[in-house]
Amino acid sequence: MIPFSDFKPKKIEYKAIKTSKKIIVIDPGHGGKDPGGIGWNRVKEKNIVLPIGKYLRDILRKKGYKVYLTRDRDKFITLRNRTKFANRKKADLFISIHCNIAPKHPEVYGIETYFLSPARSKRAERVAKLENSAIGNLQTSTQKIVLNFLNKTKIIQSQKMAIDIQKNLIYGFRKHYKNIKDGGVRPAPFWVLVGTQMPAILIETGFISNKMEAKRLSDKIYQKRYAEYIANGIESYFFKFSILVFKSFILWVLYFLANSSLVIPTVNFPKEDANFNNSLCPLCKISNVPPTTTFFMAITYPYFAEIYKIHLID
Ligand SMILES: [Zn+2]
What we know:
Structural class: alpha/beta
Shape: globular
Bound molecules: zinc ion
């Protein structure tokens, strides 16, 4: 679990991100003959997650994303068809929206975000069992085999996205409501996420077995805010991802430069000179290269140093 009490999102100029190329599949859970959880005052999960999904679709479309819903009405869809749909659309993200229930503990409430992982805690397993029921009786041994073959990169990206979304939800809601409980980001073996070929998360928007949260989740304004904060989390995730791509590009350029004798002539310092140990350190070798290269190397040195574990000599 990750505490977010100190979190304050930075103002980011999101226009820099090319949102038009990103495809997002939103999956409002359950539907049709499957009501999902039934909570306080007979509130049904399927009727809460659908409007949140639709609001989220509208917000993301306005921002320029390509967005698809696995269902836009009260219709039953199998878990397998939900992931198949996302794969067919070649989505960059898959977001499944649900509500939690704890009928024996109506006092329990809170917002939780899950990412698919073979790792499991008792609590995560309980929630996964509830949400996985639609898949029927899959052998435990089969489950274990599938979970062992999960793509590690996808898990890491899913976890990062889950953190960004959870942070924005907690930060956003706390500005307007009291008693917003951060249930944290957790790994869990959700079957709706298993078949996806893209980063995938599942949001447990709150406990509808809790009176306060059931009331809030049934409220249109709360639902709209939910969609808005999820969207903020998605933007934050894509922004960080684009920074990562940029950093990787810089590193690639640096690697090329460092290995090119045309750009950085090797200077052979006398071996007995202790100040120049002829190490990998590029700044030790660039005394006679053009000023532009020196400048370029200086500003990008931290990334280079990180990768090669090199250092400046005092
Ligand atoms: Zn559900």
